[in-house]
Amino acid sequence: MQSTPPPQAFDGKAFVKTLSTSPGVYRYFDEDDDLLYVGKAGNLKKRVGSYFLKPRMEPRIAAMVSQIARVEITITRTEGEALLLESQLIKSLKPRYNILLRDDKSYPYIFLSGGEDYPRLAFHRGARNMRGRYFGPYPSTFAVRESLNLMQKLFKVRQCEDSYFKNRSRPCLQHQIGRCTAPCVQLITVDDYRNDVRHAEMFLEGRSSAVIDELAGQMEQASKSLEFERAASFRDQVAALRKLQAEHHVQGASADMDVLACRIESAMACVSVLFFRNGISLGTRDFFPRLPLDAEPADVLEQFIAQYYLDRPVPRELILGETLPNQQILGDMLAQQSGHAVELKSSVRGERARFLQMAERNAQASLTARLASRQTLGARFDDLQKLLELGEPPRRIECFDISHTQGELTVASCVVFGPEGPEKSHYRRFNITGITGGDDYAAMHQALTRRFRKVAEGEGAKPDVLLIDGGSGQVAQALDVLRELGVTGIHVVGVAKGPGRRAGEETLVLADSGRELHPGPASPALHLVAAVRDEAHRFAITGHRKRREKARERSVLEDVPGVGARRRSALLKAFGGLAGVEAAGVEELTRVKGIDRGLAERIYAALHG
């Protein structure tokens, strides 16, 4: 029998000879064609050659080079283009050995609607595809809420939902406490309201001084025209704006500025960012990029900036705790992308130096806390390995729980924990149907079957430990499902409540042997199990409550003759939910398309007994 020759090793030295000295991007792949690393170079021949021609390399880099089976090259016109392409590829392809910003959350914005007489200001997160303007992004939900609260006090632009706004017959509480001019009932003219909206826009753009000057001019004009109430209103707005500037303006901060610092310890990195917009501090946010290769803080900051600002508005000034390897190139790329000048400064004095020290202290404190948390979690995983007598610490733990109200609208939850903590992107809920109400065994059997059928078909990850909230009966359901589907290699553990249902007295039921363990309240392993169980319980209850509320909204209106699916949907949409429908009068109900007076009276009677 003729044997197949082993695949020929990649000849890096020969490959380097074929490269040009142009700028570009290189990509390393292993023998399974998985992407290992993406890099950029001002000189491809020199940069790629450094991996294959050096006699000695760092061990982790040498480990990566030993896996390279092929290399792809993309030549660019400039090094700036190479930097931009590198950032795009890292963010989209997530190579194993690159510094990767793990930030999958969309950032909040302030949204100003457009194309209507009375626009609204609102909190927004997600795709920016509605007609209007978006201000931000803001570093946190709190920063947006705080800004919207200030906008209500200063400019009285409405923030209510359109469905609520269009169905008002009298001013709401916001008008009564002086935070809205009640455009819903035309207590303000379109022109005056648009003037307030224009001032709000100017303020959000950072032109608060211009707003003050304009309001002061309008105050003088109203006073000359003997419109003293109007003049007093402008006076109060000017005073409020000046007070706001005095309270919130940060001395030494430019209108748009971010301050970034990085700390690395124990193969973990933290980038702390201080955000300033309109000269006002919006707070701090910490990021923990993946750090697979040995890297210095300057390398991490450069990759962070390139990836973070790739699809976000860039401030005019970035204050950096390190001088970056490609600082000028990165600044030019950001300026070209944003359409305005962007300064990257790593040598600063005065107030900017103070801001930088704040960012550095925050990065170190956050990194220390993260490492301590990870070490605690690691100790708990190690203790669970010993308790369950596993060959190695588990890498993936799943836990299932059931929630219902007197057997109705049953929901099962599945939560996932790994060595880094909860993996929320892998959480799942299952709406349970077709069982006898209150039969938790059947509910558990259905949920586990739906979850592990995919594993049996070769899809999805398999847990090392499967926790079941319950005793031997629930554990038996899990064993039956795994046996039916032919899934093996999973340690099934039941988590039964102890006497008096007190925390720390739980009993662990081992499915393979039927043994019962009582680790006790001091056990780190039990702390981990309890935390996973409690999270599964929380996730199940939340899902059940949402399902119950949805069912209530549907069932009450379904009992009204003449209200079908289309009219029910129109009512809930118009009034923002069942509570809004219940609060509406007959006249307001008749304004909804398809609802005549007779039907409106029947709906009102059904909702009010």
UniProtKB/TrEMBL annotation:
Name assigned to this protein: UvrABC system protein C
Family: Belongs to the UvrC family.
Domain UvrC family homology region profile, residue spans: 259-482
A Pfam family of this chain: UvrC_RNaseH
Record domain UVR: where: 209-244
Domain of life: Bacteria
GO cellular-component term (any): excinuclease repair complex
Key words of the record: Cytoplasm, DNA damage, DNA excision, DNA repair, Excision nuclease, Hydrolase, SOS response
Location, primary (coarse class): cytoplasm
PANTHER family in the cross-refs: UVRABC SYSTEM PROTEIN C, UVRC/OXIDOREDUCTASE
One GO MF term attached to the UniProt entry: excinuclease ABC activity
